[in-house]
Design the sequence.
C-alpha cells in the first residue's frame, strides 16, 4: 500500500510570538489613548504627536517581523529598540514636567514589547542587554529618578530575564521531546518493516532451504545459499531495531518530526470474518459470530496478518499434521481472536532465545502488530498440550501505549 510522509513541526515559542504581536498592537493603542486624555499637560504636544505617529506606523508595518523567529532579525530588533529608546528620551522635550511628576513616557508600556522580542529571540542574555539599555534611558530621562522609577526599571529587567530563561528551557525541552518522538517513530517503522520481511522474504527463504535440502543435488546447494541469506537477513533485521535516528531542527519553525501516514481509507469498515475465513482449511477450523465483525480497514488487516503469523508458527513448529482452531469474538469494547493448536507446545525460554537469534515471528509479527494497534497479544503454552494465542484489539483506536486516540 502506498504511504506518504508528513512533516510535523513543533514549536513551543510560536505562541509567544503571537502573544507578542497582540501585545505590541494593544500597547500601541494604549499609548495613543494615554496621550489623547492627557494632551493638555504637554508643553509641546506636536513632539508627542510626531513620535506616536511614527511608533504606530512602525508597529503596524512590522507585524510580520514579530510573527516568528525567522522575520525577527537582529537588525529589526536593534531598530525596534531604537524607536523605544527614542520615545523615552523625547518625553522631557514634549512634557517638561515629566521629570518632576514622574509621569509615563511617550511609548509607555509599549517599550516592554521590544525587550520581550529580545527575550524570545535570544534568551535571557539578550533580554538582559535590552532591558539594561531601557533602564539607562529611563534613568537619564528622569534625571533624578524616584523610587517608583527604579522599582519599575528593576521589575522590567528581572521579568525580561526570567522570560528569556524560560524560553531557553522550553527550547531545550522541545528538542528532547522531538528526538524522543523521532526515535519512537523510527523504531515503529523498523518494526513494521521487520514484520513485513518476516511474513514474506524470510519465509520464502526458509521454504527454499527446506525444499532444496529435501531434493538434493544442485537444489541442495541453492537451499544452502538460501539458508545463509536467511540468517544474514535475520541478523540485519534484529540489529536494525536497536539503532537510533537523527532529528532535524529549524530555529524558525521549531523541531521537525517526520511521521509516516497511511492514506485515507474511503471503503468503510472491513468485516473481519472475511479476512480470517481465508485461513480456514482441512486442518484449520474457523468459528465466527453470526453478524459482521466490523473494524477499520488498517486494524483489520493488521489483526488478520497477526493471525496468519500465528498459523505459520503452527505449521512450522507443530508440524504439517497439527490442527488449529480460530475463534473470533465480537465484544462491545474490543475484538478478540484466539488461535489454538494441538501441537507439542513451546519449551520454556524458547521465545526469548528465538528473539535473540533474530527470529521475530512472535515478537514483531504478532506482539508488535497488536502493540501498534493499542491491543495485546497473550501466548499460553504448556509442553505437550499445544499453544494458545489470544489477540485483543480495542474498538476505540488507541496509541501504542494504550491511550485513546484524540
Sequence:
Amino acid at each position: 500500500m502506498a504511504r506518504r510522509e508528513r512533516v510535523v513541526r513543533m514549536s513551543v515559542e510560536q505562541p509567544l510570538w503571537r502573544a507578542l504581536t497582540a501585545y505590541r498592537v494593544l500597547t500601541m493603542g494604549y499609548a495613543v489613548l494615554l496621550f489623547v486624555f492627557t494632551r493638555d499637560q504637554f508643553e509641546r504636544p506636536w513632539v508627542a504627536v510626531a513620535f506616536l505617529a511614527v511608533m504606530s506606523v512602525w508597529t503596524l508595518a512590522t507585524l510580520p517581523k514579530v510573527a516568528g523567529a525567522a522575520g525577527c532579525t537582529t537588525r529589526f530588533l536593534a531598530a525596534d529598540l531604537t524607536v523605544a529608546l527614542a520615545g523615552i528620551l523625547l518625553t522631557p522635550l514634549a512634557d517638561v514636567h515629566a521629570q518632576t511628576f514622574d509621569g509615563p513616557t511617550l511609548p509607555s508600556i509599549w517599550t516592554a514589547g521590544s525587550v520581550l522580542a529580545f527575550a524570545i529571540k535570544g534568551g535571557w542574555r539578550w533580554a538582559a542587554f535590552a532591558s539594561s539599555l531601557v533602564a539607562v534611558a529611563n534613568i537619564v530621562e528622569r534625571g533624578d529618578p524616584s523610587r517608583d522609577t527604579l522599582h519599575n526599571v528593576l521589575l522590567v529587567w528581572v521579568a525580561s530575564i526570567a522570560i528569556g530563561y524560560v524560553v531557553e528551557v522550553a527550547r531545550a525541552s522541545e528538542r528532547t521531546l522531538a528526538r524522543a518522538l523521532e526515535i519512537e517513530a523510527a523504531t515503529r517503522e523498523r518494526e513494521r518493516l521487520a514484520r513485513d520481511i518476516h511474513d514474506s522474504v524470510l519465509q520464502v527463504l526458509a521454504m527454499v532451504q527446506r525444499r532444496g535440502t529435501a531434493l538434493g543435488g544442485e537444489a541442495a546447494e541453492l537451499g544452502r545459499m538460501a539458508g545463509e541469506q536467511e540468517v544474514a537477513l535475520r541478523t540485519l533485521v534484529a540489529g536494525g531495531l536497536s539503532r537510533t535516528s537523527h532529528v532535524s531542527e529549524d530555529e524558525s519553525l521549531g523541531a521537525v518530526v517526520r511521521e509516516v501516514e497511511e492514506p485515507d481509507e474511503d471503503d468503510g469498515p472491513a468485516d473481519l470474518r472475511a479476512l480470517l475465513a481465508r485461513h480456514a482449511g482441512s486442518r484449520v477450523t474457523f468459528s465466527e459470530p453470526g453478524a459482521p465483525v466490523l473494524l477499520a480497514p488498517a486494524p483489520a488487516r493488521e489483526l488478520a496478518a497477526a493471525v496468519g503469523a500465528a498459523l505459520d508458527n503452527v505449521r512450522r513448529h507443530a508440524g504439517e499434521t497439527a490442527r488449529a482452531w480460530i475463534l473470533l469474538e465480537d465484544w462491545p469494547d474490543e475484538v478478540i481472536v484466539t488461535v489454538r493448536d494441538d501441537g507439542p507446545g513451546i519449551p520454556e525460554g524458547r521465545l526469548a532465545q528465538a528473539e535473540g537469534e533474530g527470529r521475530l515471528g512472535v515478537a514483531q509479527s504478532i506482539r508488535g502488530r497488536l502493540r501498534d494497534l493499542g491491543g495485546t497479544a497473550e501466548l499460553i503454552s504448556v509442553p505437550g498440550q499445544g499453544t494458545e494465542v489470544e489477540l485483543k484489539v480495542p474498538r476505540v483506536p488507541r496509541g501504542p501505549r494504550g491511550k485513546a486516540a484524540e
Notes: Confidence is low (pLDDT under 50) at residues 1-8, 240-264, 356-361, 400-406. The chain has twelve helices and ten strands.
